[in-house]
Amino acid sequence: MFSIVLLIFLRHLFFFSIDARPSSHHHSKKKIHSLVGESSSQDSCLGRYIYIHDLPMRFNQDLLTNCQVLTRSIDKTSMCEYVQNSGFGPRIISSEASGLWNSNWFWTNQFMLEVIFHDRMKKYKCLTNDSLVASAIFVPYYAGLDLRRYLWGFNTSMRDSSGFDLINWLKQKPQWKTMWGKDHFLVSGRIARDFRRKSDRKSDWGSNFRFLPESKNLSMLTIESGPWENDIAVPYPTSFHPSSDDQVLQWQNLMRTQNRPYLFSFAGASRTRQKNSTRKEIIRHCQSSNKLCKLLDCNSVGHECDDPLKLMNLFRSSIFCLQPPGDSLTRRSTFDSILAGCIPVFFHPGSAYTQYLWYLPKNYSNYSVFISATDLKLGKVRIEEKLVTVSKDEEASMREEVIRLIPRIIYGDRRSGVESVEDDAFDLAIKGVLKRIDRLRGSDL
C-alpha cells in the first residue's frame, strides 16, 4: 500500500515539475502527452516545428518604420506605400475591376518577399519557443531591404556591415552551435547574386554577405538562385493574395474561360544598353507580327507595366507570354503570366527550368515553350512561326497545366488567421526547407 501511495506521489511530482517549466504554447501540451506514453503520431507538428530568432529590430522592423530610407530619388512610388498590409502593399480598388479583383489584389512590390514571408512565419501553426524541439530555425533578417539602402553611392564596408553584424549576433546564440547554422534559413527579396560580391572595389555590385564563412551554412530562399547549393529559388510575389481556396478556384475558372485574341504578347523595356539584347529581337518580331502580338512597352509614359490590372488584362488576352532575361535571368512577369493562364515562352533555361525546382514541373514542355536566344538572334527561328506550330490540343493541355500551377506560385493572405489556401508558395517553401535541413542533419551524423 505504501509503495502505491509513493508511486502516485512521485507521478504527481513529475507532472508538477513539467508544468512549472516555461514552454511554447504551441507544443507544451503535446510534449507532456509524449512523456506519459501517448503516441507521438498524435502530434501533427512532429518534424515540422520551427523556432524564430528574436533579432534586434534594426535587422527587420526598423527598416519598415524608417521606410523612407528605402526609397531612391528615381523611384516612381515611395517604398513606404509597399510596406502596408504586411508587405502586400495598398489594396487595389478599381471601378474597372470585378469584386474578385477588389478583394484579393494589391499593389505588391517584387522586393517585399522578406516582409510577406516573415508575416506568414508568425502565423505558422507549428512554431515553438523551445529551439531544442525545432526542426528548423528561421532568421527574419530583411537582407534585401537592408542592402537596398546602400546599393547606390556607398562604399563596400557600408553594404557589408549589417550582414557581418548579423552573423556575429547569430554566432553568440546557443541555437547556432547545434548545427553551426545548417538548420537556419532566411529569405531574400533580391536575387542571390546581389549578396555575392567578389571584391572590395566600390564599383562592384552588392554585398559579400553570402561569402562570409558562417553564412555558407545558412539556407537562403531567394527570388533567383545561382549555382550555389545553399540558395533556393522561390516565386516572386505577385499582386494576387487570396484568403481562401474558393477564391483561388474562382480565379482559375475565370482564366479557363478567357478570350485570348493575341497569339503572343510581351511586357517589358528594350534594355538599349545591353549589346545583342534578346529583347530587341523580341520587340522587332512582335511589331512585325501582323497584329498577332501585343506589346506593352515599359519605357513608355504612364508606367503601365507597374499597373497589375493592365498587366493582367494583357496576359489574360494572350495565348503565349514572352519571358526573356532582363537585368537578371528571371522575371516577376513569369509568375504574372502563369497567374493569367498565359503559357510562358522562355529564351534561357536559367529563367525558370533550373530555378524553381520546388514549384514547376520537371518536364518544362508540359507548361512552356522554349526558343533558343542564339537561334533567335541568328535569324534561325521566328517567334510567330514557332508558336503557330503548337497544335490546339497541345495549347489547351499546356494552358491547363499553367492554370493548375496558380496555387503553387501565390502567397495567400493569412492575416485573418484562417489557414484556408493550402500548399501555396509559402507552404511549399517550408516543406522544402524542412526536407533540406533534415537531409543536412542526416549527413552530419
TrEMBL record:
InterPro entries: Exostosin (IPR004263), Exostosin_GT47 (IPR040911). Its main location: Golgi. The keyword Cell membrane does not apply. Belongs to the glycosyltransferase 47 family. Coiled coil: none annotated. Residues 45-384 form the Exostosin GT47 domain. Residues 1-20 form the signal peptide. Pfam families: Exostosin_GT47 (PF03016). It comes from the Eukaryota. GO terms for cellular component: Golgi membrane. One of its GO terms (molecular function) is glycosyltransferase activity. Keywords: Glycosyltransferase, Golgi apparatus, Signal, Signal-anchor, Transferase, Transmembrane. This is Exostosin GT47 domain-containing protein. It is a single-pass type II membrane protein. It is found in: Golgi apparatus membrane.
